[in-house]
TrEMBL record:
GO cellular component: extracellular region
GO molecular function ontology, one term from the record: metal ion binding
Assembly with partners or alone: Homodimer.
Gene source species: Arabidopsis arenosa (Sand rock-cress)
Entry protein name: Purple acid phosphatase
First-listed, main subcellular location of the protein, grouped into a coarse class: secreted
Keywords of the record: Glycoprotein, Hydrolase, Iron, Metal-binding, Secreted, Signal, Zinc
Enzyme class: hydrolase
Cofactor annotation: Zn(2+); Fe cation
CDD domains: MPP_ACP5
Catalytic reactions of this protein: a phosphate monoester + H2O = an alcohol + phosphate
Record-listed Fe cation 2 binding positions: D85, N123, H217, H252
Statement: the UniProt record of this protein carries the keyword Metal-binding: yes
Cofactor note: Binds 2 iron ions per subunit.
Length: 336
């Protein structure tokens, strides 16, 4: 009987590993690590973006998750993007932290959400064992979970560049406000950021994707509590502008938000309302009214759908009601 149980256990583990490796293909090309997400037969790509969520179902996290499942079914979801602050208050304490299942596996149970989740780390994740979220042990617990510091998701017509933005923010090193950050992988802030920007620029320049999207935790443009992130605007934004990036998606501010850039086509999209929101907490900064397209200080999430010619971004509240929709098109050029 024991040998039979051992065989069954080994078989189950093998099946899990096979499911992980057949769901995506990892290509090592000397740049950022790359994951392949095949587009649908019609060439379209659809995904949901959620941020700042992991609270064991509290602060309406479970309700938001339920609505995500409904919208995911409606848009024929391909995968989910998490913009960081995945587990509160201080990330995971180890790869065996029960908070992983309590805030992720046991919450996002809808059939449509049983796809890959591509996640970056947020500042709260760095306050715990940041290495734990990157561990393959978590993928053995829940094969949906993919979290790296920086990487690329290649969905054919859409290419997404995930950037580890927490090490950019200088105040986390000098004014930690009583928090402890796990800087084991960041022995030098300047060298880490320089290397990351170099790898990102190489990946962006080599991209042939119709749509280029960069995902990070911190906002570049925001009227929310935290406001703009100075370091990103100074060091990251110029690279995005030089390389034809269409969208920058982030969390950090616990709101839903859409802003445009004043001197480039880049759109800034905040989806950080996966659980606890900050009602009425607006950063009193001077914003060009023409740049602010939408702001909502409640809970919710965002969906995105791309075809070769069009992109559609939709923001939803906790009840699944549409709050804001933005559509843009790119002219199709026929080959001669």
């Amino acid at each position: 009987m024991d040998s039979r149980r051992s065989l069954m256990s080994a078989t189950a583990s093998l099946c899990l590993l096979l499911s992980i490796f057949t769901t995506f293909v990892v290509v090592s090309n000397g740049e950022l690590q790359r994951f392949i997400e095949p587009a649908k037969s019609d060439g379209s790509v659809s995904f949901i973006v959620i941020g700042d969520w992991g609270r064991r179902g509290s602060f309406n996290q479970s309700i938001v998750a339920y609505r995500m499942g409904k919208i995911g079914e409606k848009i024929d979801l391909d995968f989910v993007v998490s913009t960081g602050d995945n587990f509160y208050d201080n990330g995971l304490f180890s790869e065996h932290d029960p908070n992983f299942e309590q805030s992720f596996s046991n919450i996002y149970t809808a059939p449509s959400l049983q796809k890959q989740w591509y996640s970056v780390l947020g500042n709260h994740d760095y306050r715990g064992d940041s290495e734990a979220q990157l561990s393959s042990v978590l993928r053995e617990i829940d094969s949906r979970w993919i979290c790296l510091r920086s990487f690329v998701v290649d969905a054919e017509l859409v290419e997404m560049f995930f950037v580890d933005t927490t090490p950019f923010v200088k105040e986390y090193y000098t004014e930690a406000d009583g928090h402890t950050y796990d800087w084991r992988a960041v022995p030098s802030r300047n060298s880490y950021v320089k290397s990351l920007l170099r790898d990102l620029e190489v990946s962006l320049k080599s991209s042939k994707a119709r749509w280029k999207i960069v995902v990070g935790h911190h906002a570049m443009r925001s009227i929310g509590h935290h406001g703009d992130t100075k370091e990103l605007n100074e060091e990251l934004l110029p690279i995005l502008k030089e390389n034809g990036v269409d969208l920058y998606m982030n969390g950090h501010d616990h709101c839903l938000q859409h802003m445009s850039d004043e001197d480039s086509p880049i759109q800034f999209l905040t989806s950080g309302a996966g659980s606890k929101a900050w009602r009425g907490d607006i950063n009193p900064v001077t914003i060009n009214p023409k740049s602010l397209k939408f702001y909502y200080d409640g809970q919710g999430f965002m969906s995105a759908r791309f075809t070769h010619s069009d992109a559609e971004i939709v923001f939803y509240d906790v009840f699944g009601e549409v709050l804001h929709k933005w559509v843009t098109s790119k002219q199709l050029h026929s080959s001669v």
